[in-house]
Design a protein that fits this description.
The structure is a single chain. The chain is built from 16 helices and 22 strands. The protein is an alpha/beta fold. It has 2 domains: 227 residues, 3-Layer(aba) Sandwich (Aldehyde Dehydrogenase, Chain A, domain 1), CATH 3.40.605; 189 residues, Aldehyde Dehydrogenase, Chain A, domain 2 (3-Layer(aba) Sandwich), CATH 3.40.309.10. It has a 7-stranded mixed β-sheet with strand order 16-17-18-15-14-19-20, sandwiched between helices. α10 links the parallel β14 and β15. The longest helix is centred in the N-terminal third of the chain and has 22 residues. It is globular and about 75 Å long. The N and C termini lie far apart (69 Å). The protein binds adenosine-5'-diphosphate. Adenosine-5'-diphosphate (ADP) binds next to α8 and α9. It comes from Lentithecium fluviatile CBS 122367. It is an enzyme of class 1 (oxidoreductase).
Length: 502
């Protein structure tokens, strides 16, 4: 076997062939420089595999492949239903390889296998099928009411060559959110995975080829953000950039994308509030507050990481929440069936969460659970005990900054107006949740919260059919749902002169 593939056996015993190359033109190739990045198992800090890392020259090759495919009649003129069929085929191949993909995701990222298998892979398959169905249902409009001498209509065109930069917290799901709408509408793609989780995306390359996409329609790269990512964002022959990641990197990408005024979609950070009113169903509020912050090791951009509780039930909520977390947030080996929380993705993220724990303590917030590394997993790995700070003040770093870990800041409020004002007192505006049994108050508050998404009596139960995205410094544009198609099409207006007078 060439060095472009390696036979691996995962910790759960599953054997598979891991691609190591850059996936360009439906083939795996080595990077020009020979540079690689090594993926680490966050559960025991061992090396899993090294894969080729793209530099600017490789990015040029991938973009040229995507441009050629974009212009090629085999893709450009493909019947829209046939394009949808290719996506349906891809979804069924992902289903066939579901266990292997879930294994890679857990091994590389650290999320529990049960979650990878049901949630992540369920979302991937669902998203690809959802957009497969849209492929032949995206059309323009005839615009009447201009003049009898004019026929005006619009057609929806693909944007062109799309660069897609994805993060490490949901590698395959983020790939699906971006590939689905881009391919359904006839674009071509150069995607770059996060350097922390390079493996599953390459395995997906196998399935793209097998599904029958023409060469160059989907190109998948690994590589460092500052090299490969920046080369994509600055590339003069890339028409669009779609990015999910931190707000700081999103701002960098916006600047770089200005070079040729790329179309941009950005989904960035958050510090989402969850507001618990006195009149809520307490059990529901506790259950969803837990999921809202502790799911996926707290590594979710929409995590409801600030919990604001009305003073009448503050003590009761804190007690019930602590108890629920201690019962349900089982930390451990992500391949064990009862594990709810695996390790943080990398040492850097692990240390970042620990530094916020120190910050919370030194700023005087009250630590009531966790607050340290979780050691009981063979002495290795990036595990953190689920951490709860209460009586957190609005000026504290742990209240204002995104931690991205199993870490929550709880604070109390008196009135509805105060809750809204404090929920909105952030530079972010991604998600928000609120708990009340008063239907009028629920909708009133939902309207006044500055966020792209508000959950009433739940948290983070997003849905692939519903638009997802942020306001303020949480992003630009929407993914998922019908809105996700807007991000990958341009409207072209065609004016037909029906007369001879002019
Ligand atoms: P995090 O801080 O959570 O790792 P980032 O926003 O840095 O998140 O990373 C998200 C994605 O953006 C990754 O694929 C990463 O490689 C990429 N990236 C990071 N820095 C840059 C950059 N300067 N230009 C383009 N892409 C980048």
């Amino acid at each position: 076997m060439s060095d472009l593939f390696v036979e691996l056996t995962a910790p759960n015993g599953r054997k598979y062939k891991q691609p190591r190359g850059l996936f360009i033109n439906n083939e795996f190739v080595a990077s020009k420089s020979g540079e690689t990045i090594t993926s680490i198992n966050p559960s025991d800090e061992s090396e899993i595999a090294s894969v080729y890392a793209a530099g600017p020259e490789d990015v040029d090759v991938a973009v040229a492949a995507a441009r050629k495919a974009f212009k090629d009649p085999s893709w450009r003129d493909m019947d829209a239903t046939t394009r949808g069929d290719l996506l349906f085929k891809l979804a069924s191949l992902i289903e066939e390889h579901r266990e292997t993909l879930a294994t890679i995701e857990t091994w590389d990222n650290g999320k529990p296998y049960s979650v990878s298998l049901s949630d992540d892979l369920g979302e991937v398959i669902g998203t690809i099928k959802y957009y497969a169905g849209w492929a032949d249902k995206v059309h323009g409009q005839v615009i009447g009411g201009t003049s009898v001498m004019k026929l005006a209509y619009t057609i929806r065109e693909p944007v062109g060559v799309c660069a897609q930069i994805i993060p490490w917290n949901f590698p395959l799901a983020m790939a699906a959110w971006k590939l689905g709408p881009a391919l359904a509408t006839g674009n071509t793609v150069v995607m770059k995975a996060a350097e922390q989780t390079p493996l599953s995306i390459l395995y997906l390359g196998n399935l793209i080829k097998e599904a029958g996409f023409p060469p160059g329609v989907v190109n998948l790269l690994n590589g460092e953000g500052r090299k490969a990512g920046a080369a994509l964002a600055q590339h003069l022959d890339v028409d669009k950039i779609a990015f999910t990641g931190s707000t700081a990197t999103g701002k960098e990408i916006m600047k770089m994308a200005a070079v040729n005024m790329k179309n941009i979609t950005l989904e960035t950070g958050g510090k989402s509030p969850l507001v618990v009113f006195d009149d809520c169903d307490l059990d529901q509020a506790v259950k969803w507050s837990h999921i809202g912050i502790m799911y996926n090791q707290g590594q979710v951009c929409t995590a409801t990481s600030r919990i604001l509780v009305q003073e009448g039930i503050y003590d009761k909520f804190v007690e019930a929440f602590k108890e629920h977390v201690s019962k349900t947030s089982v930390v451990g080996d992500p391949f064990k069936e009862d594990t709810f929380q695996g390790p943080q993705v990398t040492k850097a993220q692990f240390e970042r969460v620990l530094s916020y724990i120190e910050s919370g303590k030194s700023e005087g917030a009250k630590l009531v659970a966790g607050g340290e590394a979780y050691k009981d997993v063979g002495g290795k790995g990036f595990f953190i005990s689920p951490t709860i700070f209460i009586d957190v003040k609005d000026n504290m770093k742990i209240y204002r900054e995104e931690v991205f870990g199993p870490f929550v800041a709880i604070s109390s409020f008196k009135t509805e107006d105060e809750a809204i004002e404090r929920a909105n007192d952030t530079t972010y505006g991604l998600g928000a949740a609120l708990f009340t049994q008063d239907i009028t108050k629920a909708h009133r508050v939902a309207r006044l919260i500055e966020a792209g998404m508000v959950w009433i009596n739940s948290s983070n139960d997003s849905d692939i059919r519903v638009p997802f995205g942020g306001v303020k410094q949480s992003g630009i544009g929407r993914e998922l749902g019908e809105a996700g198609l807007e991000a990958y099409t341009n409207k072209k207006s065609i004016h037909v002169n029906l007369g001879t007078k002019l």
